Amino acid sequence: MKTPEPRREQAPLSNDRAIAPSTVDVVPCGIDGLDQILGGGFPKNRSMLLAGTPGSGKTMLALQFVISGGRFFDEPGVFVSFEESIADVAINAQGFGWDLAAMQRDNKLRVIEAGLIDSFGTEVGDINLEGLFLRLDHAIAAVAAKRVALDGLSTLLSAFSDEKTIRTELLRLFDWLKDRGVTVIATSERGKTAETRYGFEGYLTDGFILMDNRVEDKVAKRLLRIVKCRGMDHVNDELPFRIGPNGLAMYPVTATGLDYTVDTKRFRTGIGGLDAMLGDAGPYKGSTVLFSGASGSGKTNFAASLVDTACKRGEKALYFSLEESADQIIRNTSSIGLDLGGARAAGLLRIEALRPINLGLEGFLYLIQDKMQAFAPSMVVIDPISAVMVMGVGLEIDSLLMRTVYMLRSMKATLVITHLISSGSGGGGMAHDHPISSAADVWISVRAHESNFERSYVIQILKCRGLAHSNKISEFVFSDTGIKVLDAYVGLDGVVLGSALLAEKAKAELVAAERQAGIEKVERQADARQKALEARIAAMRAEHEAERTETETYSELQRKADRIEQEAIEAVLKRREPYARGTGDGG
Q1: How confident is the model over 513-528, as a mean pLDDT?
Q2: I need a surface site. Which of 63, 210, 369, 564 has the fewest CB within 10 A?
Q3: pTM of the full predicted structure?
Q4: What average pLDDT does range 478-484 have in this prediction?
Q5: How far is the C-alpha of 150 from the C-alpha of 77, rounded, in Å?
C-alpha cells in the first residue's frame, strides 16, 4: 500500500532506500532511516517487538510510532503504558514538542495507564487479560485506531507464574489485536542471558528489533538491529541512532545512495596560485575538498580562505570549528587579510564552535543536518575532522564520514574538511592515514619543510577527480593579503624554498653572469678572428684583383702587339703581292 509522505518536523534525509520497497503492506513509522532499512515501514496489521536495555529508546520509538500515525498518516493510535503514569508519559512527550493532550482532544490518540490491578481487574486468583482487552477495545473504537503501542510488556507478563501461560496469553493478545486491524509495537526488557526477559517473546511476534544503549571508551552509543521481520527484506546490521529534539532519528549508511546528481560549475578558491594548480578554475561546486597536514601546516587558513571567498561572492557558509572558538578563528585568520567577522555580521557566515565528544558520533551528524536545514549554506567546513575520528574506531568512523559526505552531496553543498595527520606520516601522508580521502573529490596535502634553520610550507594536489591539475609540489606563503601559492623554483641543486631561495637566485645570477661573460669573451674572440679572417680575405681578394688586372693588362698588351705584328705582316705581304703576280717594275 502506497502511503503519502508526511510533513515532519524531522529533517528529510534521503529518498534512497537501502532495499527495494516491501511487497507486504506497510505503515511508515515516521522515522525516515528506520523506514528505509525496513523497505517502507512496519508490516501492516502485524506485531513488532522492541527489546532493549534501559535508556535504549524503546518507549521513545513506540510513542513516536503512534504519534506519527496520528499527526502525519491519518492513523490514530493507542499508547498503553504498563510502567508509567499518563502524566509522566505526557511530560516526557512534551520534551520533544509532542502535545498528547491536544492529540487526544482531536481524537488522534488515546493513552492508557494499565497497572497490574487495572489490567487484570483483580489482585488474586486466576489471572487473564480480559480487563486489558476491554480497555483496549474501548480506546481503539473511540479514535478508530490503526496503531497500538504496548510499553513495558515485561511488567505485564511478570504477573503470570509459568511460561506456558505467558506464551498462551501473549499469543492471545497479539491475535486479538490483529483481529482489530491494528499494527502493534510492544516493548520489552532485555534478558540477563537472552535477548528478551523470557527468551521466547521474539518468536511470538512478526518482527523483532533489538535496541542497545552501551558505553565504549567512555562514549555512549545507541544502536538498533532488526533481528527479524516476517515477509519483508530488511537490513539486519547493527545501526546507530540518536534521540534528539524531535525524537528518535537515524541516518543509516544504507541511506547514502550513489544516484545523486552533480554540478558541472566550478568555483574559485581565491587563493593565488591554487586555482592555477586546479586547472585555472577551481574545484566543482558541491564537491568535497580535503586539506590534510600536520599541526601548523596551514590547514585552517586554507579552509577559512575558501569560506572568505565564498562569502565575498554572496554565498552562505557554515563553519564547524572543533578546536577553536569562533572569535579565535576570526582573529587568527584576520592576520592573513580574511574578514570572517564581517561575513558573520552580514549573516553570510555561521561559526559553530563545539566539542564533538559532547554530542557523540550520531549527535554530531544530526547537528550538521539540523544546522544545514536551518541555514541552507552553499559551503560547509569541518575543521578538523580528526577531532571527530577520535570518538570511534574502524567501521564506526568510516560510517560517519561516509554519511556526512554523501548527506552534504545530496544537499548540493560544497564540503571543505581539514584533517590533522601525524608529523611522521611522511611527505604527502599515506591514504591509510585518511579514512576520508577515498570520499574526497579533491585531496590537497599541505606541510611544513625545515631547512637552513627555517620552516617553509609546500602544497601538493594528491587527487582531483574529473579535473586536470598540477602534479608539482609548490611553495606557499602567508601574507597580510592572504595565502600565495608560488611557482616552484628549481635551482642548481633542485627545488629551493624559503630564504635560501634568495641565495640560490643570487648564486644562479652569478653563475649566469659568469656564463654570460664567458660567452661574450668567446664572442669577442670569435669576432676578432672573424675580422682578421675577413681582412686576410680582403687582402687576398685585393692581391688577386691586382694580379687579375695585371694579367688582363698584359694580355691586352700582348693581344695588341699580336695585332700590330699581324698587321705588319699583312702589310708586308700586301706590298709583295704585285711581284708575285709578275706585274712589278722588274727592276
Answers
A1: 83
A2: 564
A3: 0.68
A4: 87
A5: 11
